[in-house]
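Data availability excerpt. The first of two example chains:
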Amino acid sequence: MTTTTETQSPAARQQGAAGPGAPGRTSRLSAVKRQDALTGYAFTAPTIIGFVIFVLGPLIAAFYLSLTKYNILTAPKFVGFDNYVRMFRDERLATTYGNTVLYVGAAVVLINAFALLFAVLINQRLPKGLTYVFRSAYFFPYLVALVYVSIIWQALFQKDTGIMNYYIAGLGGEKIDWLNSPEFSKLSVIIVDTWRNVGFSMLIFVAALQEVPKDMVEAARMDGANEWQVFRRIVVPMISQATFFNITITIIGAFQIYESIIVLTRGGPGDASRSVVMYIAEVAFNKFDMGYASAIAVTLFIIIMLVTLLQFRLRKSWVNNE
């Protein structure tokens, strides 16, 4: 009587010898996986190294310096949480935080409102060439460096020679001291920030609007829905992911507003238009109080992180994932 091995064909015996558990095949698979892993690490290494050097490293250094008294000229002296306690007594810091919160609120409302309005207008049935013209015109300011944009607007905001007051006077109004008035200095910063950044958010909304199913819109219209009902009930939920992205990016950017204030108002008059980031730079590089500046920077980082986490927590309640 023949054994099972003897009755098997040569092909079957060869397959059994080189089965999934064969040492040679396992070794070859392991080598391939190691090679793929090394390739992946090689491609991601520049990003990881850059993150460690330019993000994680400075963040750790800032947290360490926030616990010290350090003026660049002497070695850091550990003082614990004294710098953080000092912030509660700093009236200028409270003022700059108030200004920054105002900039954030204005940016979220104005940038996204105008961006959505322009995106809806561009998404209408216009000739393709005209659509490209409008899209490029709205987006172009975002491509220009903020410093250059601010220099141009500084000339437009001049009280005696600026074009803004030229038209206001032509309409019978009084000239406004845009850059030296406590009220209008903040408004001038908000105008420049909105004008410069609305184009980027607009492109995000345009891309989202183009993904709204046309058959769903047509079905709603056939059921008797007017344009406002279609927009509110169908379009707005369908572009909620783009809305969430734009709001998140706008908040993070507005918390870090800096260049336009430097050029337009230099934070004045007094601290009327000064932002937190500008105050950090002043404390660090004008007063050389690196420890206190680092403490403010750490708190700003924590605030931005908490606001962002809160947004992601609330995301499920209003963002459509389909």
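And the second chain:
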Amino acid sequence: MNKVDQYLEAAVRDNTRRSYRSAVEHFEVTWGGFLPATADSIARYLADYAGEHSLNTLRQRLAALGQWHVSQGFPDPTKAPLVRQMLKGIRALHPVQERQAAPLTLEHLQHTVERLEALAEAAQREQRLPALLRARRDAALLLIGFWRGFRGDELARLRVEHIQAQAGVGMQLYLPQSKGDRHGRGVQHRTPALKRLCPVQAYLAWISVAGIAHGPVFRKLDRWGNLSEQPLNSGSLIALLRRVFADAGLPAATYSSHSLRRGFATWATANGWDLKALMTHVGWRDVKSALKYVDASASFGELALSLPTPARGISAQ
């Protein structure tokens, strides 16, 4: 691969590249389509899978096919009026309520972290390194993911050399690439140290016991306590989190990696954060995207009893 191809490939996120490759393969191999495609063939492709796949899946495949045509110098057939009309018809005949992961409540977060802390303390007393490592890693993953509202792929791409943390003060986390960073300039995130459920304290405890000085923050860990040099796969986070929640006695099946992001958005809304502050903290640029994560019912608080004065932002030490 020459330098030009290397830079062009680096401009596209790995997850996006894999998704696009899979979509093009599905059109060509599974369905038997030909590229470059016509608007008519795209419409027939959509019709054949309209009742089988969700509208979001079909849209993702259209985006991949459109990107292929543009990158190869061909007109984009996915933008044709026929294709747009087909999507409108599919939406009308196959209405499906969008499924969303349940937001992780602060109560459930606290319950889970307290259990992980108890496991870590017991493992340290009994000198069981694998259990200690797993408990510390999972607690840091939960707390950073919740208070920063990170996506699963963002958690997986965190690196020690891109984080500055000071106990009792806060931490700065730099992500060279992020979904909301359209220009690829990198994003600097800040999180204060908290009086309880502190992500800074959890992070420092994790890298200390793991002895990590550089590389991925969250890594694979086998049953014998061997820590991989490779980061956790973002696709494996759902299973990891559901295991953690199930061990804590929570309804694990309702949660996913998006539950951390939705949980923070719901907590912030209920505690008086306005939408602009929430979008700035999490990194949303589109209001519609932000509103998908906010559970408006939580804003009523405990109305049946009393409404406490909402706190502005996160209380820091």
